[in-house]
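Issue 218. Parser rejects a valid record. Input:
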Amino acid sequence: MKAYPLVLHDAFSHFPSQNPPWTIFSGSLSLLAHKQIAGPKILYCHTPPRLLYDQRDFYFSQTAFLNRSAMMVLMYLYQKVYEDAFRAMDIIIANSENVQKRIKQYLSADSVVVYPPCDTTGFGWLGQEDYYLSTARPDLLKRVDVIVKAFLKMPDKKLVVVSGGSELVRIRKSV
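Output the parser choked on:
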């Protein structure tokens, strides 16, 4: 884990103070600027930082043994800074019921669900081709390799992976 959140927290402290009628924060790092903003603060939460909560063990396991102590300290500091900023929000909006549950579970806070805006009126069902599509980013957490292995056992089914990620080369070599 890089120390970006803590660097950004320090960088935000040098921003000039602002006093808008209200502010919407979106993204787990954006609310680190909360101290420089007066007025009502609204968080549109896409998810609490997963590396601090439900995926903490995974990120820790991916860290070299000699770096784990430093990572623990950085994660502790980031979690404290994040939770202080989170508590400074006046309204918490979750982008889905799943995120709302994470907010309740990890931050013991209530939130209102407002789904991301998407005008679907211009879309229509055109039918389905003879393949399955994966848009998940091929990295360890997304487990695209498991999808690929499952499709290798079903030669009559076609899988198309359309995104890139840290595990793409390894997954391609396994096919």
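Fixed in the parser; the record now loads. The mean pLDDT is 88.
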